[in-house]
Amino acid sequence: MKRIVFLRHGESIWNKENKFTGWTDVPLTSKGKKEAVQAGMLLKANGFVFDIAFTSSLKRAISTLNLTLEEMEAEWVPVVKSWRLNERHYGALQGLDKDKAREEFGDDQVLEWRRSYATTPPLLKKGDERSPKDDVAYRRVESSKLPLGESLENTVSRVAPVLREVIEPSLLEGMEVLVVAHGNSIRALIKYLEGLTDEEIVGLDIPTGQPLVYELEDDLTHKNHYYLKT
Ligand SMILES: O=C(O)[C@@H](CO)OP(=O)(O)O
């Protein structure tokens, strides 16, 4: 049996402030840091020992991973950071208050932007200071690959190469894998891994700071999954 654990970062300041976040690089709140430590405690208590960990280029995921590994006394675990594991890019919605967006655009529109599979949010315009194309963190990424706003479907296409080319080979080698990422990038990974339909993924929500364990057959087909609980 193969095992991969997904962990959504702990609460960020924009989770707390109820803002569309996407690729905005905001830090964890003190509650978020505690959630990361708690996740490390749970993983350690349940006997998890990881051979490799993957995270995004965003500090809320990186800090969560660091705090989790520190709590597990496993800071030696090799870490791969990839922009492909970043949160779904929320385009021009990034920075908007989610309740204010509902007042302005209506509940249905906001729900569609947040949870539908194929709808793209309003895109950032060229030259917008929120564009990843001008961000030093992505200077080695081909500009045409960097999004100005994504549907979940776009995010699935973006995360698939890292899953196929690095995560799945690690699992096939027998490694225990930890992925610390974001609500929508984890939904994208799970859709791909579990082969969920476009409709099934709409109802899936990932809570912050709770390790989600996937058990897979030797050929990586889905066997079972569960959250680790205290
Ligand atoms: O704002 C975001 O980037 C995401 C995750 O916090 O929000 P939502 O759950 O609305 O997709």
UniProtKB/TrEMBL annotation:
- Please indicate which residues carry the site annotation Transition state stabilizer: H182
Matching SMART domains? PGAM
Annotated metabolic or biological route of this protein: Carbohydrate degradation; glycolysis; pyruvate from D-glyceraldehyde 3-phosphate: step 3/5
SUPFAM superfamilies linked: Phosphoglycerate mutase-like
Could you tell me what reaction this enzyme catalyses? (2R)-2-phosphoglycerate = (2R)-3-phosphoglycerate
Q: Which CDD domains match?
A: HP_PGM_like
GO terms (molecular function) for this protein are: phosphoglycerate mutase activity
Catalytic residue positions: H9, E87
Q: Which residues bind substrate?
A: 8-15, 21-22, 60, 87-90, 98, 114-115, 183-184
What family does the Swiss-Prot or TrEMBL record give for this protein?
Belongs to the phosphoglycerate mutase family. BPG-dependent PGAM subfamily.
| Cross-referenced PANTHER family | PHOSPHOGLYCERATE MUTASE (PTHR11931)
Q: What does this protein do?
A: Catalyzes the interconversion of 2-phosphoglycerate and 3-phosphoglycerate.
Name of the featured protein: 2,3-bisphosphoglycerate-dependent phosphoglycerate mutase
Gene that produces this protein: gpmA
